Queue: 3 jobs
Job 1
Amino acid sequence: MLERLDEVPWAELTHAYGSAADVPEQIRALGSPDPAVRKQAYHDSYGNIFHQGTRYQATAFAVPFLIELLADPSTPDRAGLLDLLAALAVSYDESLLPHPFPIADLRRRAAGGEAVLAGKPLPTGEEDDSGDYEYQDSLEEDDQERMYAYIDLCAYQAVQAGVPLYRQLLADPDPAVRTAAAYAVAWFPEDAAGSIGPLTVAATDPSDTVAASALVALGLLGAADAGSPAALRAAVAGARELPRWGAAVALAALHGPDTEPAAVAELHTWAAGDHRARRGIPYLEGDLSGYAALALRQLGDAHAGTAFDTLLTRIPSVDGPAAMPVVKEALRHAFPAGRVAAGTRFADLTDRQQRLVRALAASPSTWQWGDFGSFGNFMGMVGGYGLPTTAEDMAAFAAGGRSS
């Protein structure tokens, strides 16, 4: 295993910190029997070939060896490997859900990127090597976008090559591996024809986490297999809580405004409820309520009013990352035209916009992230609509002030 690892010219490839010469050692360490060694290797891998969601030139070259490790039943923590592979393929899912992976769009944006990447200088291996950044800064914006999209596409396609293995792992003895396999398979719509059957079987898995993850995957892949609709209807009407959630999310993705009432009711229950993140559910890091709030978007205009009411109900009980999808959807409902003009008065807002402003003003905890205090990402999201970026300023705005 990994016998060809050293044949890759790692020193000529780059990751977040320059030369990728350290990647082979990290890949080998991912298969170590020592948990401490593996933990450090995962930390290093997420830091260099997946730095804050960005993929690099070395990323696609590392993937085949990760798949090789995954294929060996003796490799420890294969669920962690599957999670890493999924991340390398699609980055953070919060930027995608509730929609499937837009592979056609990525292929379009990547056109011409290979030639741009070919012009990049080789890394020197020196710690202060700035050639990579200087080359990127020298490019026109369109060429930068093509190159980055091409790098992302290479990583995605490298992970895609392992789809047959991920399908096999849907029947692995370890439920954590089965769950991670369902999540991984969900992001490859071009392979849906061969994935829907195994996922439909997994949707009845005795593990609630596996079943729920497989059900969501069926929705993301646009399940058209003859057995899938029956599995989804059975799950949404069943007694198992997590599979009901997964089936409701999937049915909204598949049927949109025509989603059956039982699934619609399930989504409203989850979106309005005070549910903590569920360990083991990979989507949105286990934020089931947040995903339900995103899924309400797919129900269409007929449900827009009740969906908005549900989101407002949820706002006081969320903070930190859990507040992002809820308030993001509420903002999308209330401000469909986007950013308000500078100097907009509270009285100029529509009734729905005023209700949201009041809800945010009355929920200062929603702007926080536990003990960390103010949550910059949340403030930036709200500010992107031209609205005040603190609860105090929002309260002043709601009392008759003007937008900035």
Job 2
Amino acid sequence: MQMHPVESSMMKAIGYDEATQTLEILFNSGKTYEYSGVPADVFADFLAADSKGVFFHSEIDECYDYRMVKKGRR
């Protein structure tokens, strides 16, 4: 999955796999989460959003199933 660096106080990069509709977010904490069932247009809007944090909280967090795929740094 290609990750796109983003300017955000809460995340470093986001990526998307259109075939599986999986969104991946690398947070500044070092933790990585996958969100499933995310439509391609939601990812495109996320990538284009002026505030990634605001978009995440309103359009992604608590809206899609997710799982941690990598724990943060210790």
Job 3
Amino acid sequence: MARPWYRQLYFWVLTAIAAGIATGWLWPAAGVALEPVGTTFVAAIKMLITPIVFLTIVAGIGGVDSLRRVGRVGVKALVYFQAGTLVALLVGLAAVNAFRPGEGVHAHPGQLRLSGSAAQYAQSGQEQSWWHFLTDIVPTSAVGAFAEGNILQVIFFAALFGVALKAVGPVGRPIVEGVNRLSAVVFKILHYIMLAAPVGAFGAMAFTIGKYGISTLTSLGQLIALFYGTSLFFVLVILGGVTALLKVNIFRLLRYLREEFLIVLGTSSSESVLPRLMAKLEGLGIRREIVGLTVPTGYSFNLDGSSIYLSLAAVYIAQATDTPLTVAQQLGLLAVMLLTSKGSGGVTGAGFIALAATLSTVGTLPAAGIMLIFGIDKFMSECRALTNLAGNSVASLVVARWERVLDTARVNRVLRTRTPEPEAPAQPALANA
């Protein structure tokens, strides 16, 4: 029997977000003082992310019937990620050129000065090479990758470990069984931590409103509204079109993941729901090796919300500083953003770092222009995280369908009942596996 609505996690998270907004607005000092509440909750979740990613990937690869399939899943995921990023960038470029929110600002580049956190993010962006996500994928220490929470490096090590485990045959089977049992324990710990989600969302939202103020939302309201509207269009129309081809209703999928979306809204971090998202997608019947490879990798390579933000912000800065950009220059900007948008998921100030890296690489736009949007970046980070979450959810469905192992009937059954089915039925081996 389903629990009543007032005992559901989403209700308490939504209530906590509303209470956090009121607290930060009416008592800003108290809201700012609540920062440790939100950051502690996110830290508790991040504590489990790398172990869960490692265990899920190793169990997925160790349980698959063919290593060739693992490689094929990885390649298909990366192809889809690149296509999704390109579409997101194009949607952002089309929106900012159509509505032109930066016109009339007339900010002189010589009067813009980088300071505070913005200067640190800009410095990190200028030092970041376009190929950094390739060179940084190999950790100098396997333990260090876990300690630093570097998801991309953990994925690399887990994939190697899983392949080696599969290659040793019967010797590795007890380890695979142990990994599955350890996963159950770690997910139980996650369940305990998630009971504090409303408290974490309250503290994070109270701090955001108390620190930056609701008035900040109105100062650049047109750009904020355009970003949220463009992201909503991308999710409902672009991603909705993709799911329609899969015969899956995007609204049911979003409703199925409503608790995850509300937690992301409250914490401004899509990482806070990564383990829950993986469990929910497996509950749809998507195979573990697909979820284990697609979702964690997507957190670095499939950042649809961040891509929309990059294209909007870069052209907004050009418009606001009266810097003309031809169609050819905007397409060149897009090519650079295809690279700078990768590999920065989960890094504090990742959006600003990627934007600064783009501006410094292109050279035609003033890097100090990021100061024009620094004040509202915190309010845009929620939308980036929400869109990234939606994009990675759809990506898992696409890759499963591409692999011809998506049980659409089961997916729709779970979405209708909103009750995950943790044990997926055995899938027949593919003829070309």
